[in-house]
Amino acid sequence: MHLLLLAVGKTDSRAIEELTKLYADRLGHYLPFTLQIIPDIRRSSKLTPELQKQMEGAEILRQTSTSDKVVLFDERGREFSSTAFASYIERVMVSGARRLVFVIGGPYGFSEEVYKRADDRVSLSQMTFSHQMVRLFAVEQLYRAQTILRGEPYHHE
Question: CA dist 16 to 9, 128, 133, Å?
Fold first, then answer.
């Protein structure tokens, strides 16, 4: 199975970018992993938040195929412990899905079309984080899930 993390917007923090790359590289030792950045939509006075979500959503949908399992990182999604999240990923892996796509939306969230396409929603926390930090947290949790599934000592209960 291939794991893809789609994230809207670039990271302007070099420190967060380096940490994200560290965990992405580690994750790549367990399964094929790609972090794909969808460029920011240029803001203008004519661009409403709803229109921005629609434009970002069109690009998100363009990057996915009908056979993908698409999971949104969304504040209204289900919350998991790290071990439960690992089990969730394992269930997807054994289901026969060829590609599991996690998506981090833009500053205004997701368009209605993206919500309709999504197979599931997962919340990293009830707290609000910057999109840059969510990217780091998501990649670290995906890495952690792989170490849990293999019984490696990275995660401690």
Answer: 14, 17, 7
